[in-house]
Design brief:
The structure holds 2 protein chains of 2 kinds. Chain A is α/β, with parallel strands linked by helices. Helices cover 38% and strands 28% of the residues of chain A. In chain A, helix 3 runs parallel beside helix 6. Chain B is an all-alpha fold. Chain B has a domain of 195 residues. Helix content of chain B is 68%, strand content 0%. Chain B is built from 12 helices and no strands. Chain B is globular and about 60 Å long. The interface between A and B is medium-sized, with 32 and 27 residues.
Chain lengths: 235, 298
Amino acid sequence: MLEVRNLRAGYGAVDVLEGISLSVPTGACVCLLGANGAGKTTTLSAICGLIPASSGEILLEGREIRRLRMETVVRRGVSLVPEGRRVVANMTVEDNLLVGAYTRGDDQVGSDLEAVYRRFGRLHQRRKQLAGSMSGGEQQMLAIGRALMARPRLLLLDEPSMGLAPQVVNDIFRTIREINEAGTTVLLVEQNARKALSVASYGYVLETGRISFEGSADTLLKSSQVVEAYLGDAS
Amino acid sequence: MTAAAAQFLASYSNIIDLCLLNALVAYGLYLALSANMFSLATGGFMALGAYCSVYLTMEMSQPFALAVLAGAVLGAAAATLIGLPVLRLRGDYFMLATFAFTEVIRVVALNWDDLTGGALGIVNIPRDTQTWHLALALVVVIYLVHTLRGSYLGRAIAAIKQDDVVAQTMGVDVFTVRLSLFVASGFICGAAGALAAHLNYFVGPGDFGLVRSVDALSYPILGGVNALAGPLVGAVFTTILPEALRFSSQLREILLGALVLAVVLYLPDGALSVLKPRRRAGNSGGGKATAAAPRVSP
């Protein structure tokens, strides 16, 4: 589905990513782990065209998308759930979801809206409410639902667990697993490595702009390097 | 007695015309503001519309309707030309650039004597603008804005207003949407300039400077940009208020300023937000977003 080769990108003249390569097979759920400032968000931003990549290749289903702008990338089937959720606070939940369907011209938007409401019953209850008045977990559900409204084939998630209570994090990750099992390919960026590796089958560890480690979820969970740096000693 | 009544009516109809005209401009600005474009180009657009239409009616003997349309198109064309480079700029830089545009137009109008009459302006312009022209233009614009608000594009614009990146993530071509809104704003302001010129018998370079631009910006902001009626209310309010405060002579400007300040301080979402159910004072932690929709917060 997605193939990134030797990607360099950053802000202004400074490259944050110093040539990273990763691969997300169709149907898989792959995670990208790393500490603050490692370049996780930069990676996602470069993949979807929010920031320009200075060199390297980004192939979506074999086609180069590196020079495309975000609106085109979305139309090619890639949706981003941005860091910090970023719902449109003074718009209703339903309008937020409909913004997600902006690129679509088909007549299935209504049934997709119903599907999102079935998946997130809470959003249905609150559909006429302003998005900014909801809790963090509900806003995260909304951000995911909004991304699904574009009918993505590849879903990029940027730190979906950020700032949420453990119980809510569990709900969110269960949802991510369900979305993946329903056929959407997922690239998940997380600091919560243990949670991420519980849904992902393969993981990359990003350290100051380079991939320092990669492997299947099991390998990463057993690797002392990863355990020490990202999983801590507890549990 | 009857003469006094007629005179009263005459001056009253003047105010109505002015309210309608300013409301038209207010919706032009509303379109720009709806995507966070604090444009000071209004004066420039209106000047282009005014001089262009006056030239067409007075020098070329063209029909009034054609002249207004030409003024609007010229406003839209100018918006495209300055929008293309300037819309890449953010916030205050955009504002400065649009201010510069208005100043350039004013200085050109001041010095291009053959076309604009220079500092003396153009007098004896036929009074072709009727109240119903203004009313019709306003109704059409309000209807279009209303339709836009309920559309996919309208929701995309609301998303842009809050967060460019979110709109981009949803596949919205933010630049093109902004440019279109700015051009629409230029079109409306150009038409308003043409209508204004044929309302007052006179145009001069001082009519469309910075003051005009700032006034125009204040209408939708004072009325509120979240409600459809906001710009209308703001324009009518700001137009009538100086007349209502006439009794206070010198104090008028001070009172006007104080009132504007009060609205900005206490009703940051515009005057119309008094109609919305408001939460208890002191519960303003979340800012605008929490203003409506009752909800129990943790």
